[in-house]
Amino acid sequence: MLQGVNYGERDCQAIAYVRLLEEFGKSYLVRSHVSIPKLGTARGAHLDIILQHPATQRIVLVIEVKKRPDSKARKQGERYAKLTGAPVIYLRGMAECQRAVGIVRKALKEIGQRGALQGPGELGRPAAPAARGTYDDP
Fold first, then answer.
1. Distance CA 51, CA 58 (A)
2. Is 108 left (phi over 0), alpha (psi -120 to 50) or beta?
3. Which residues in the chain land under pLDDT 50?
4. Residue 116, CA atoms < 13 Å, CB-side half-sphere
């Protein structure tokens, strides 16, 4: 990466998405800029990156990207976790986006140890709605 360049959130997201797609694209559906429609009284959402189970389309992990490494955002992630029924992690700043594969691999390992990868509706949570409207749709 270039020194002294101010990267925006989309730049960070693009770096993370490409690296995650290369690493996890055979095991999961890796999708970027995903829209979740409004459900009942719950607001909809625009998720930065998600990993979906290929057979069930269930969202396994939501990845929110923030351009600033000192971002303290948490409420958005809590709302997205309630909306999708999936854990949410943050990638804060370009350095974390460049290390996205290791960070996500660690998160998936933690999720697997809790049994959260067993199928839709596990751990008393309903299956997340199917996502639509991504840039990476074929």
1. 9
2. alpha
3. 115-138
4. 21
